[in-house]
Amino acid sequence: MVTGKTRENEHSIANFEALKTAIANNETSLVKELVAGQTMQKLEKDYLLELARLGNNPQIVRLLQEVPLRE
């Protein structure tokens, strides 16, 4: 049985994977689209920020820093 929570988790995982790929490919505009109106858990945000720093893209780092944390 698929619940609303299960679908939400699947969407969240898919969004996280898309963000990782966009960051790795230095796709700033896609990252901006994917984080618009989103919140993140601290661990997710820290991981993505580290990935962006490794890619040496200050615009992506800035976009990720602006994403609010989820409680």
Task: Itemize the secondary structure elements and their pairings.
Blueprint (H helix, E strand, L loop, with lengths): L3 H21 L3 H8 L6 H13 L3 H8 L6
Helix pairs in contact: 1-2, 1-3, 2-4, 3-4
Low-confidence residue ranges: none
Distance between the termini: 27 Å
**What form results from the Cα inertia axes?**
globular
- Give the mean pLDDT: 88
Using the CA coordinates, give the radius of gyration: 12 Å
Work out the helicity level: over 70%
Largest sheet: none
Quick one: how many beta strands? Answer: 0
- Strand fraction: under 5%
List the secondary-structure elements in sequence, H or E: HHHH
**What's the total helix number?**
4
The secondary structure category is mainly alpha
Give a written overview of the molecule.
With 71 residues, this protein is mostly helical. Helix content is 70%, strand content 0%. α1 (4-24) runs parallel beside α3 and α3 (42-54) packs antiparallel against α4. The longest helix is centred in the first third of the chain and has 21 residues, at 4-24.
